[in-house]
Write a structure and sequence with these properties.
Elements lengths: L1 E5 L6 E2 L1 E11 H5 L4 E12 L2 H6 L15 E12 L4 E8 L25 H4 L10 E9 L4 E10 L20 E11 L9 E20 L5 H4 L3 E19 L7 E13 L4 E12 L9 E11 L1 H13 L9 E14 L2 E11 L16 E10 L1 H10 L4
Antiparallel strand pairs: 1-2, 1-17, 3-4, 4-5, 5-6, 6-7, 7-8, 8-9, 9-10, 10-11, 11-12, 12-13, 13-14, 14-15, 15-16, 16-17
GO molecular function, one term: porin activity
Organism: Granulibacter bethesdensis (strain ATCC BAA-1260 / CGDNIH1)
Family: Belongs to the OprB family.
Length: 394
């Protein structure tokens, strides 16, 4: 749930939700295939997008919205681990953003600017995103117990992103190209590090056709002419990111973790110049609440000159000042209550400074900064059923 009692174009509330059912099958136990597993996931999404319907900006405050509000097959892959689990191969139908540029801390937040990944990568590339699956293959190799190389290739098929797709059309006839993400990472856990950390440097090459952020097919501006956007080919970008536990008072998971990311484009005409984000998550802020978390994050999305060219032209022709806000800043403060072993409740407060006006280029006044009140409810049905069968507390 999310509501904007202050700011935006108008004040409303909106609900968005997701149901996920899946299975991880150990093929060694089932049929004797050593190191092989099969992953299956089906999702259902429903609800409305408050940012689109009321606030007016283009980045959602409800991370669970998008990808077609429908039921679809989200994952069906075969994974093989070899050389004492140092080599991981996976292929089938899946999504890139769950494997690359990811962090266990991003979806501590409800804002889509952070969860599931920093939005820059979706504005400036065709990285495939949950829950819209396509053909893929990836390889991950642990060079040491802490250092790995990771690369993949993902079919880009934008026809799969609508409400009418259910994930069972496996044809490549309407494919737009291939997305190639890659990453060098350093990762530790509680098993081999008192203060676990993840450091990643990576990038991507987007070998697809994409729409110019402003120019139309005749060389004018889309925001003025209404003509289709000019089609371009190939773009790339890079990022560095980290999460680092900096305080841990005992041997439990209690402690404070900081995280951050910086992203920029390398080639192509892109909608954004750069993206910066920083945040923190404290696990067990109260010692007697070991599974609660307190989180805060803030990010800056900087629109590119290419994206603002058409906006400025449309405003000039409408008799308005050509300038508009380039930097949209989004932030969130939340607290997650582990209400039951199977239920987590996350009330949150979000604030948007300079909501972008890409949807409303000729609005006479800037969209007012928006204050958003949110509530995120997570129920683990699998754990709930398991506990009921075993007679354990819920």
């Amino acid at each position: 749930m999310a509501a904007n009692p202050v700011g935006g174009i108008k004040q409303e509330a909106a609900y968005a939700g997701q149901i996920l059912a899946g299975a991880d099958l150990d093929m060694n136990k089932l049929v004797g295939l050593s190191g092989v597993s099969v992953h299956i996931a089906v999702t259902n999404r429903q609800g409305r997008n408050l940012s689109r319907d009321a606030i007016g900006n283009s980045t959602s405050v409800q991370e669970i919205w998008g990808g077609g509000q429908t039921t679809r097959l989200t994952q069906f892959t075969i994974e093989k681990k070899a050389f004492n689990n140092r080599l991981i191969l996976e292929a089938g139908r899946s999504i890139a953003n769950t494997e690359f540029l990811s962090s266990p801390f991003y979806c501590q937040f409800q804002s889509n600017s952070a969860c599931g990944n920093p939005t820059f990568v979706f504005r400036t590339s065709s990285l495939t995103w949950w829950p819209v699956s396509s053909w893929m293959g990836r390889v991950k190799f642990w060079m040491t117990p802490r250092v790995y190389l990771h690369a993949g290739a993902y079919e880009v098929n934008r026809s799969f992103q609508g409400n009418n797709d259910h994930g069972f059309n496996w044809s490549t006839n309407r494919a737009n190209g291939v997305m190639i993400p890659f990453e060098l990472g350093y990762a530790t856990t509680f098993e081999n590090d008192r203060l676990p950390r993840h450091y990643q440097i990576g990038g991507w090459y987007d070998a697809t056709n994409y729409n110019d952020p402003s120019r139309d097919t005749q060389g004018g501006y889309v925001q003025v002419s209404g003509l289709p956007a000019q089609s371009l080919y190939g773009r790339s970008g890079a990022y560095i990111r980290f999460d680092q536990m900096v305080w841990r008072p005992d041997h439990s998971a209690r402690g404070l973790t900081l995280f951050g990311v910086a992203m920029t484009g390398l080639s192509g005409r892109l909608a954004e110049d750069y993206f910066l984000e920083a945040g923190m998550v404290m696990t067990a802020p109260f010692k007697k609440r070991p599974y609660d978390t307190l989180g805060f994050m803030i990010n800056n999305q900087s629109l590119s000159g290419a994206a603002l060219q058409g906006v400025s032209e449309a405003r000039t022709l409408a008799g308005l000042p050509p300038g508009t806000n380039r930097n949209q800043v989004m932030m969130e403060l939340n607290y997650t209550f582990q209400a039951l072993e199977t239920v987590r409740i996350t009330p949150n407060l979000q604030y948007i400074i300079n909501p972008d006006q890409l949807r409303y280029p000729t609005r006479p006044k800037s969209i007012p900064d928006a204050f958003v009140v949110g509530l995120k409810l997570t129920v683990s049905i699998a754990n709930l059923v398991d506990n009921m069968i075993k007679g354990h507390p819920l």
